[in-house]
Give the backbone structure.
Amino acid sequence: MHSKIRLAFEKMVGCSNIITQDLNNYNRDWMNKYVGQSQLVLTPQTSEHVSQILKYCNQNQLKVVPQSGNTGLVGGSVPINDEIVISMRKMNKIYEFDQNSAIITSESGVILQNLNDYLFEYKYQMPWDLGARGSCLLGGNISTNAGGLNVVKHGLLRNYIMGLEVVLPNGKILNLMNKNRKDNTGTDLKQLFIGSEGTLGIITKANVLCIPIPQEKKVFFLELQSFQDVIKVLQKVKKNEQVLAFEFMEGRILKKNKNRHSQNTLPFQFDDNKYYVLIEIAGQQLNVDQFSIEMMEFTQEIIINQNEKEAQFLWKLREEIAESMGKMGYVLKYDVSIPPDKFEWLVNQVYPQREGPFHVYYGHVGDGNVHINIVFESLEHLHKEEDKIELKLFGLVKSLGGSISAEHGIGQHKRKYMELQKGKDVLECLYSIKKLFDPNSIMNPNKLL
Ligand code: FAD
Ligand code: 2HG
Ligand code: ZN
């Protein structure tokens, strides 16, 4: 790196917030699929630091990549070339929780789990939850409008963001830190930054509306004979307001993961040709017996947790799928939205008779979001197949009126399909917005747009 640039950053943020060695963890994504060439990572500690960094980069046409927990699954958080990584980890102050409004005010670099730990004494929690909770940061969640495990009950993250502080590429610190639940004063500017994957500015603070921790919870794990049964169960429970999560797993992956656990802890033997559902209900005075009876209409094979440890174990069977696939090789991951009753059909269209490389589908069937994971033994092989699979898969998704990204976002992975998804007119509008905020295109280049 040019010594003049280094000196400028030293003046702005100090030597302790500049990293130029051992950058592997910043240049590589969680899946080992995307690798960048950054030579410089900055770790700002205040919004003023972020402001000075962006102003300087903008004036000198230096490209930057905002990075939070780096758990994103579409290559959005790692550089492509030698962009400067702005790691938000050190902006990790939680300011306060206001018990009257149930709003937490925090810097954006706090780990999601730490926010929940902080809220615990107030008997509140964050309104979204995902398997990466121990590593992902608030700002990363907001920038991806993360989905996760409880969307079926709580809806999307963007509905809970009451206020934001955002630093624009020109260094301006935009104060959108509203704390009013109701604020009808024109266009809601902060919404533009939610889900924009670091392409418009850097989120530095947020006000988030929290939800009370439910008094009781119960996890049901069901073994079903067909995917149609999964949908029948979904239809049955859909109107039950206590359903907090409705997750689907194929037998073929649960069976493969059996050896990760001691046999006597498993709820079932797991069968390649069976279908498994995890339902969590939560609230006050849960009617567990009534719910069980309703489920028995579809199957006798039901496990219900007896204590917290068992609940965590049942959840682990679901949550470990993403990581276990990564251990098998290089994984192509898809997170599409389609009508839930089309999940099995879609996979059968892509892989008739389920032949081809090892692949599974699973996910948030309760909100119409299926994950398809396909494993390859090398990155070369993966890249060779990628386009072929995507043309077919995304074409079908589009024909079903679905979305090519239900929750992980676009990043570098799906950028070339944005026109297919959005259409020319919408895409033009999005480019105009990008140009308005980031005329020099320094923010997260070649991602999303
Ligand atoms: P990063 O990966 O660091 O960044 C994500 C994007 O946001 C990048 O484009 C980055 O440039 C941008 N960005 C980061 N911070 C900022 C900021 N402060 N300002 C502006 N832009 C910023 N996702 C789901 O939606 N649902 C799931 O259920 C889910 N489960 C997961 C399970 C596992 C095991 C893993 C590894 C990932 C999972 N993910 C899931 C994906 C990922 O965790 C989410 O996308 C998460 O929100 C990313 O947060 P992060 O802090 O890691 O952000
Ligand atoms: C999940 O729901 C995550 O487990 C990850 O969104 C999905 O790895 C995946 O494809
Ligand atoms: Zn998911």
Notes: The chain has four domains: 3-87, 94-212, 214-319, 329-408.
